[in-house]
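subagent[fold] <- orchestrator: predict structure for attached chain, return tokens only, no commentary.
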Amino acid sequence: MTFYTRIAGAALMAFGATGTLWAEAREVRIASHVSHFSPLHAQSELFAAEVEKRLPGQFEFKLYPGGQLGKEKDLMTNVQAGSIEMINVASGVMKLDKKLGVFDLPWLFDDRAHVRRAMAAGLEDAIRARVEEVGNVQVIGVYENGFRHVINTQRAVAEPFDLEGLKIRISGGKFRQSVFQDMGATPQKVSWGETFTALQSGVVDGAEAATYGFYEQKHFEVASHLSLTSHVYTPSFLLASNAFMESLTDEQRAVFHEVGRAITDQAYEASAALETKYFDEMKDKLEINEVDLKAFKEATSASYDSYVEGQGDDYLVFVRDTAEQ
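subagent[fold] -> orchestrator:
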């Protein structure tokens, strides 16, 4: 059954001098590749609700999480082509441009507070401009998909050497896999939907993902350790097609952009609340441990060199300048 949020009404419009008529609310689809457990779904709900407050009855937002309208790559293609109004995606945006690959760098941020400081200091505006320049889309909001952690069946991972010999299901490209290999892990290619069975059978010892991924797939039922490695932070991007935005009135277009920015704090807070909720529900099922972030940063510091050589360090300046000393 299609999962969607319906925010609808009828807009009263002036109709000449003789009377009025009710115009139908315009349908706006917001699709995502991740499930309704994700912070992306909560962000889309926030956006739809706030636009409805500002422009009551003018739009009917329908949310399609979980890849109902296609995988992330397909959603990106469709929003660029104007065949879907809006999408909320994550790492797929990084593939638009090597410079955006800054978010694939390991241990880029200390925590969510550091992310927010860096974004507010200018990183968000720089990223917005780059995505619009190379992506043929309009960026409505930049929020979060979250930090990625490691879950496994063998032992707590607290320092880099704890990964030695572990077979880890890793998503992402060769760069992320090489980072884990450098710390002694053996990357494994397993489809996300088969990871539960792979953990259960020992085909893999562990997996890395955002918290909601472990929760929705119930990996806590077969794994014994969740280590808060926070090795990669991925933002989320609420994107709209140029064709859709150009079809709106000036007022509507302005409201979409204003709301996209206005809900940023709420979006981060909603993401943090979801993560806390999932941790609370998993903590009795497995051990959750903190890690020595400094040790991991030192072990992977050389991985920044090739990025800086090819793409410069202008994005990294925002990160470094907002890190707590």
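orchestrator: received. Logging for downstream: Confidence is low (pLDDT under 50) at residues 1-22. The two ends are 50 Å apart (CA to CA).
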